[in-house]
Amino acid sequence: MLQLPKLYAITDCQMSNCTHEEIVHMLLAGGAQLIQLRDKDASARELLDAARKCLPITRAAKAKLIINDRVDVALTADADGVHLGQDDLAVEEAREILGEEKIIGVSTHSLDQFCAALETSANYIAVGPIFPTKTKENPSPVVGLEFVREAKKLADRPLVAIGGITVERAPEVIAAGADSVAVISALYPFAEIQDFFAKPDITGRVRAFLDVLSK
After folding, report:
1. pTM, entire model
2. Are 27 and 9 in contact (CB under 8 A)?
3. With pLDDT > 90 as the criterion, what percentage of the chain qualifies?
4. What SS3 class is residue 10?
């Protein structure tokens, strides 16, 4: 069974005022070992270029790089895997394309979706949003920690929690049953400051998460 680190870091160029490559360098410097390349606004070519720049960096650090949504980009770049939403390719379709060795994760937002994901070959299942989040234009309804507890009772593989998770909230999410917390906005503490030249202390924020998650 796949072993996930407790922190699942996700890139965001808009929030960070950094390139994906810069973000990955800083995430790794902080100790992140599982990174998702996420860019909803990028074209397939732009995301592929970013993946090809980031993969040598993550591989040198013995970290995993997962591509958000795009199975074609994950395949072409030879990334470590892909993360699928409910509107993306089905898990088994992605598995047929990527093969047995690649990591495939899937997002779920209800108990029905979670149970359906258990019937697939997904290596991990994400649940959320746990708390209110600003990283999606039309987020699914908040499911809360109780959903994490319910999912954990049924889970036969790693459980990733996502959505509004801060440094302060991360320990209670793990305590509720999550094996890993996926984090976007909380990694970019300057995200709400309208300074086009500011770059957040991403490395420091990763270390803060890892510190509280190691206790």
Report:
1. 0.95
2. yes
3. 87
4. strand
